[in-house]
Amino acid sequence: MLARMMQVSENVASLTGQAGANRGQFLAHVAANREICREHLLLQLRVSHFPPSEPGQFVQVLCEPNAASDASEAAIAPAYPEVCWEAGTAPPMFHGPDLLGAAPYLRRPFSIAGRRDDTVSGYSEIDLIYRVIGKTTGLMAQLAVGDNISILGPLGHGFSLPQEMTTALLVGGGVGIPPMIYLAEKLRRQKVKALAFIGAQRANLIPLHITGTVGLEPALNVREFAAFDTPTLIATDDGSLGQKGFVTQALQQYCQSKPPNGAVVFCCGPTPMMRATALVAAELHLPCYASLEQPMACGMGTCQSCVIKYRPAGAEDWVYKLTCKDGPVFNTTDILWQ
Ligand SMILES: Cc1cc2nc3c(=O)[nH]c(=O)nc-3n(C[C@H](O)[C@H](O)[C@H](O)COP(=O)(O)OP(=O)(O)OC[C@H]3O[C@@H](n4cnc5c(N)ncnc54)[C@H](O)[C@@H]3O)c2cc1C
Ligand code: FES
């Protein structure tokens, strides 16, 4: 319901409710939607006047069945009947079938994996990399070039780069890899040395293009990271590519053999992976920032569905923080992992 209520006109410059944020709802034209590996696709969206964004920020995607191929706003209007509620009457009731229709009722969050801006035309190309696991991602997989979807963003607070950092260690697992590509691009622009640790269950679930031999040492063998001069070290749970084991073990072993003074760890992936990354970083006395992927509904601080327990250094007690609005990026020492 909330997502439907948030249906506002295309290219709203900014929505209220999030401090200092410049965000809006945009009609996004599908420029490409192609398979990268098993169950994972790259969706490239052409969007007019998309506000500035940072790695770690995300968009909320609304994808309806039969996505429209004309660019009118009506074409992406919800497939649900209008709900009228007259003052003084009982509120409308929703029942299972209303909520479990063919279309996803709520938007779904996806990290920005990259963007390219054309300052002349005002168009940006936004990359999303997604794994097909349910209703929205199933519909996204059916999108064809020329179709239109609605995105809301950019949302949340992205990664900040500490001034004193000498090296950035990027740790991405599964669908946590996409924001690391965008971060690698920013780090290259800011001339910060970076190294990416990539983890997946097995080789065919790595949503990246492997272009060279994968060994046990970091190498420029992944197209998406090599484009930003970022070597990668790959780990798979079953050993089908790169180092056998969890990506956190690869991070630990690398840091123990080559202690990276002045390094900062940035991570995104499944919660157990981020918790383990935080532990490794703490053992090595390295600062660590995680982009959390809590399940979300509104994505903008209204529904309170994405809380985490948070206790910053020095605080006596913990408080709840909203992953969507206060995060998704947090200093891992402030998180009380569940
Ligand atoms: C900030 C953020 C960034 C994200 N970035 C990406 C991304 O770049 N690429 C990507 O593929 N996915 C990303 N995700 C996860 C993505 O939002 C979910 O996979 C998506 O909601 C699935 O939608 P669906 O309708 O296809 O599946 P649904 O039908 O909604 O769900 C299918 C199953 O997945 C479970 N599920 C849904 N969301 C999550 C979640 N966040 N964590 C654990 N289980 C979940 C559901 O409980 C259900 O069992 C991100 C999530 C967050 C919060
Ligand atoms: S998803 Fe609604 S408050 Fe965070």
What's the CATH architecture of the largest domain? Beta Barrel
Order of helices and strands: HEEEHEEEHEEHEHEEHEHEEEHEE
Estimated helix fraction: 10-25%
User: How far do the termini sit from each other?
Assistant: 29 Å
- Radius of gyration over all CA atoms, rounded: 20 Å
CATH topology of the largest domain: Elongation Factor Tu (Ef-tu), domain 3
| CATH secondary-structure class of the largest domain | Mainly Beta
Major β-sheet profile:
7 strands, antiparallel
CATH superfamily of the largest domain: Translation factors
- Ions, cofactors and other bound molecules: flavin-adenine dinucleotide, FE2/S2 (inorganic) cluster
- Which structural class matches the secondary elements? alpha/beta
- Mean pLDDT across every amino acid position: 87
- Given the structure, what is the number of helices? 8
Low-confidence residue ranges: 1-20, 77-81
Q: Given the C-alpha coordinates, what overall shape results?
A: globular
Strand order of the largest sheet: 4-3-7-1-2-6-5
Describe the structure in your own words.
The chain is α/β, with parallel strands linked by helices. It has 2 domains: 154 residues, Translation factors (Elongation Factor Tu (Ef-tu), domain 3); 127 residues, 3-Layer(aba) Sandwich (Rossmann fold), CATH 3.40.50.80. It contains 8 helices and 17 strands. The strands form 3 sheets. The protein has a 7-stranded antiparallel sheet. Strands 11-10-9-8-12-13-16 form a 7-stranded mixed sheet, sandwiched between helices. Strands 15-14-17 form a 3-stranded antiparallel sheet. Strand 9, helix 5 and strand 10 form a beta-alpha-beta unit. Helix 6 runs parallel beside helix 7. The two termini are 29 Å apart.
